[in-house]
UniProtKB/TrEMBL annotation:
<dbReference type="InterPro" id="IPR018389">
    <property type="entry name" value="DctP_fam"/>
</dbReference>
<dbReference type="Pfam" id="PF03480">
    <property type="entry name" value="DctP"/>
</dbReference>
<protein>
    <submittedName>
        <fullName>TRAP transporter substrate-binding protein</fullName>
    </submittedName>
</protein>
<feature type="compositionally biased region" description="Basic and acidic residues">
    <location>
        <begin position="346"/>
        <end position="357"/>
    </location>
</feature>
<feature type="region of interest" description="Disordered">
    <location>
        <begin position="335"/>
        <end position="357"/>
    </location>
</feature>
<dbReference type="InterPro" id="IPR038404">
    <property type="entry name" value="TRAP_DctP_sf"/>
</dbReference>
<dbReference type="GO" id="GO:0055085">
    <property type="term" value="P:transmembrane transport"/>
</dbReference>
<keyword id="KW-0732">Signal</keyword>
<feature type="signal peptide">
    <location>
        <begin position="1"/>
        <end position="31"/>
    </location>
</feature>
Amino acid sequence: MAAFSTKRWLTRAAVAPLAGVLLLATGCSDGADSADDNGDFGGQVTLTFGHPFPPTDPIQVNVWEPWVDEIREATDGTVEIEIHAGGALAPAPQVYENVVAGAQDIGWTMPGYTPGRFPITQVIEAPFAFSNAVEGTEVGWELWEEFEEFQAEYDDVEVLSLWAMDTGDLFTRDQPVETMEDLAGLTIRSPAPLQGQALEAMGASAVNLSGPEIYDAVERGVIDGYKLANSATRVFDLGDTTGYRTVCNCYTGAFVLAINPQSWDRLSPAQQEVITEHTGPDLALRLAGEHDAMAADVADNYWPEHGVESVELSEAEFERWQDAVAPVYDQWASEQEEAGVPGTEMVDRIRARDGAG
């Protein structure tokens, strides 16, 4: 972890990193401001933490629940975090704005759920660029630390962490996709705008849907398939709706964890220090590792149990897919340049890595 600098995250002047925790007015005591330089934690604080994913999601069970315990213990019990899963506080597309508005304290969500809101973050979703979550997370933090324009997308929250999920493949219900021509006439769920454009470039019709919406859309025939992180097929229990998986490393989605600035400010300095020590790039790689482990287990167990067949693209066919979406990525870079963002430099940085398309 020494390769990552944390000098910018969780500082408003430098534009705090992603996703955050917002203190509800009813959950904070005036004592939260009473911590002194000797490390006293001050008064009791309760933070609400909402996300749109199921409470059985391994990320909640294996990371968030232990993380809540770690924060409680490290603050001598003065910081309590209440997890509200499954969109209990806000549906997927509204989690981030719910944090901004102060309706919840902490939010875990995907920037791609709000099309157009986080155009720079899409760089992490580069088509065919990363082989796993850890690699995408490492690159994401490198770009975050270097480009203030990236950080500026989140200037209305305090970012606690930013990471990538395991790679997403193409899943279909009835028809295997072995060539680009097989996508013609199919309606495919896209996780984010850049991926929707990539699907359109390859001949499919793209529909932007959040993860929790996929099952119903496939079952009712609204969509013929979906792009999704491999681990998430089990999170949303999509095995019975899915016949085929085309292995393509089509994208790596981004996640953020953020806290409302006013909520952050009401924490004592000692409480802030504890949360800082338990988030940032260290937490990001912990989360990415969990995503990769989930993906491996799904491949070994979940898909075989549900009869999902894997389709391997030939090298020549995979190159066709890469060539088809290259203009989409170039257009993204051009649009960022027009907005004063060094998009070309970001794209070149990712393409220079081994395995990038």
